[in-house]
Amino acid sequence: MRVLGIETSCDETGVAVYDGSRGRLLAHALHSQVALHADYGGVVPELASRDHVRKTLPLVERVLDDAGLVAGDVDGVAYTAGPGLVGALLVGAVVARGLAWGWGVPALAVHHMEGHLLAPLMEPDPPAFPFVALLVSGGHTQLIEVAELGRYRLLGDTRDDAVGEAFDKTAKLLGLGYPGGPALARLAEKGAPDRFTFPRPMTDRPGLDFSFSGLKTHALTTLRGIDAGDEAARAAVAKAFEHAVVETLAIKCRRALVETGLRTLVVAGGVGANRALRARLEALATELGGTVRFPRLEFCTDNGAMIAFAGALRLAGGDAPTAELAVRPRWPIDELTPPAAA
Q1: Which residues of the chain are in CATH 3.30.420.40 domains?
Q2: Using CA of residue 156, residue 157, residue 163, residue 166, what is the dihedral sign?
C-alpha cells in the first residue's frame, strides 16, 4: 500500500509517500516557515495556516514526481488531525481528504505524536515492541510505555512548559534568535560546565512527571546577576540550563525503564536532535545494558514521512477510513487504540 502523508500541525509543511509493500520511503519534502515567523519570535497561527495553503499542493506534486508516481498509484492518504494549531490542521485535513475523495482512496486521520513515536521504526534496524518512548518537542514532554502499535500507557507528562518550549523561552532570555532551541544548544557548546548550577526539577520526589518552568525562572534570575555583555557568562548559563534539562530527562528515563522492566528506549520529537541529550541517553542505555533508538535527524522535527508511515501501518492493520472532517487541537495519545480495535 502506497500512502501519501501530509503534516501541517504547526509551522512546517511535510509531504511524503511510503510504500508499505516494500517497507520503504519513496520520497519526502519539507517546507519550513522559520523565516516567516522569525520576526515575531514564535509561530503566528494565522500566518502558519496561510502558508500551508500556499505550500501543501505544490509539495504533493513535487513528492509524487520525485517518487515517480501519478495520482492513480496512491492507495491511501494520511494526514495529521491533531494535536496542533487548529487552522494549520484544517488546511492539511481539507487537502488530504479532497485528494483522497478525488482519487477514490481512503483518507486516515493520524495522531501527530504517534507519528513521532513511530518514526524510529523507519530506520534500517528498527526497535521491537515493547519499549519506553520519550517524546520531547515544543509542545510535549512525555514518557510512554509502548506495548504495540496503538497500545500506549502514559507514564509521565509535563505539568507546565514542554522541554522544547522551555528551550525556546530561555533562548529568548539570552537574546538568541528563533528557533531558540538549536541556538541555545550552539551557545552552550562554548560555555564553562561548572560556572553555574541549575536545579533538576521534580527529581527529588517519586514519579515520572516533568516541570521545566522553574528552570526558565532560574535562568532569568541568573542572567540578572551578570553583565549583559559578558558572552562567556551567557554561554555558561546556556550550558547550565541545557545540562539541567538533559540530566532531568535522563533521571526520569532511568526510572521509567526500571519501573517497567524494559531496556529499550525510543526518543522522538524535535528535542531528540539535541546532541547533548543523545550522548547522555546513549550512556544511560549502556549503563542499564539496554539500547536507545532515535530517528534520523531530519525526522526528529515535524515531517510528512512519519505521517505516511503511521498511516500505512494503520491502514495495513485494518483501520477504517476516517469518516468525518474533524481535527483535534488537543488529543491525548493514550486515547488511541490498536488498528481495527473496537
Answers
A1: 2-118+299-335, 129-294
A2: negative
For domain 2-118+299-335, give its CATH number from 1.20.1250.20, 3.40.50.2300, 3.30.420.40, 3.40.50.300.
3.30.420.40
From the number of C-beta atoms within 10 Å of its C-beta (0-12, 13-18, 19+), residue 206 rates as: exposed
93 close to 325: Cβ distance less than 8 angstroms: yes
pLDDT tens digit sequence for 95-123: 999 999 999 999 999 999 999 999 999 99
Question: What is the rounded distance in angstroms from the CA atom of residue 218 to the CA atom of residue 187?
Answer: 18
Q: What is the pLDDT of residues 215-238, one digit of tens each?
A: 999 999 999 999 989 999 999 999
**Closest residue by Cα to residue 214 from 185, 187, 243, 244:** 244
Q: What is the mean pLDDT of residues 185-199?
A: 96
What letters, b where the CB count within 10 A reaches 16 and e where it falls short, cover 275-288? Answer: ebbbebbeebbeeb
Instruction: Look at residues 151, 82, 96, 134 and name the one whose alpha carbon lies nearest to residue 249.
Output: 134
CATH architecture of the domain with residue range 129-294: 2-Layer Sandwich (3.30)
pLDDT computed for residue 228 by the predictor: 83
Grid cell locating 332: 491525548
* Strand pairing category for 131-136 and 141-148: antiparallel
Percent pLDDT > 70 in the chain is 99
Q: Which contacts qualify for 213-220: CB closer than 8 Å, 24 or more apart?
A: 213/160, 213/161, 213/166, 215/166, 215/170, 215/241, 215/244, 215/245, 216/161, 216/166, 216/169, 216/170, 216/173, 219/170, 219/173, 219/174, 220/173
